[in-house]
Each structure stands twice: as structure tokens, then as C-alpha cells.
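Record Phosphonate degradation operons associated HDIG domain protein, 196 aa.
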Amino acid sequence: MLDKSHKPTWTSFEEATKADWDAVMDYEEAYNAALPDRILDAIRSLDEDWTPYPVNRYQHSLQAATRAYEDGADEELVVAALIHDTGDILSPYNHGELSAAMMKPYVSEKTHWILKHHCVFQGYYYNHHLGGDRNARDKYRDSPYWEDCRYFCHEYDQKAFDPDYPTKPLEFFEPMLRRVLNKGEGHMELNETSES
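=>
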């Protein structure tokens, strides 16, 4: 239970007591419980009025998730398809890394890898039009997840711009997102061990 009466008196981490950190952890637990709502708001913020794409990034995200769902992908991958471009909001030039970092405590190593690398894999479809190397993804050929990422991008991401595709609404995916975010590792830094 969050104790709102606890008033901190410390001004640096080294001054904080165990009681102070207990109060911080209570706050963190309550704040982190609202993470699904913040992610849903981030997805909604992709619903811009104008786009040079056939659908905007909000519709694209819903369509990618719908395609993954209809393909029988596991729930974690459906959620990855739903949130794969949310990193665009704060970091458009490396949005895959940001989306991957956001989901790392909640998804498998494979799904994290797909999210992190989907941008370079997507380049296969357009880099050659922009003066880049469409085969840049090949530098990751040794990864056990290369084919999984290629499939994700080919079947869910690059095809998800069809304004006539029967796309499911965000409310359909909300319970999946909440379930995936409910199985996280929590504070990952607490699981780190010092190296000798």
C-alpha cells in the first residue's frame, strides 16, 4: 500500500534510508502498474491527422498486430507488432531500439531482438530507393532470430499499410498487452550481479 504520508528528507541516494527506499518502491509499484495505460496512450498518439503513408502509424500498428494475430502468432509477438513503432514518438531514427528497450523486461530474447532490429530489416523494402543498402540486414545472418525478424517484417510490418484491411481496434489488443506486461522481471538492475 502506498504510504503518501512519508515525506523524504534525503537529497542524494547515499543519504536515503531503508525506510526511504521502501517508500520509493511502494511508489514505483503503483506507478509501474499504470504502464499499460501509458503505452496505450503512446499508441493512440500515433493517430496523426496527416501522413504520406496510405494509413497513419496508429492504423499501421493496429494492422500489424491484426496480421500477427490472424497469422496465429503468440500473444507476445502480437503485442510486439502492436508496439513496434511506439519508439517513433521520442526517437524516430532508432525507434526499434527504444521499443525493444521498453519491452525487454516483459518479452523473450527473440521478441526483444525482433523489436530491436526490425528497422534495419524493414530497410530491405526501401533502402535502395533512398541510396542505402537494402541488404544491410544480412550483417545479422548469424543470429538465431534472423529469419524470425525477416518474417515479422515481411508478414506483419511492411504489409500493414492497406486502408481496406479488416483491422481490429486497440481495445481488442488491450488485454493481451496487459497480460504481457504483467509477466515482467521488474527492476532488472536488482537482478544484475557484480563482475569479478
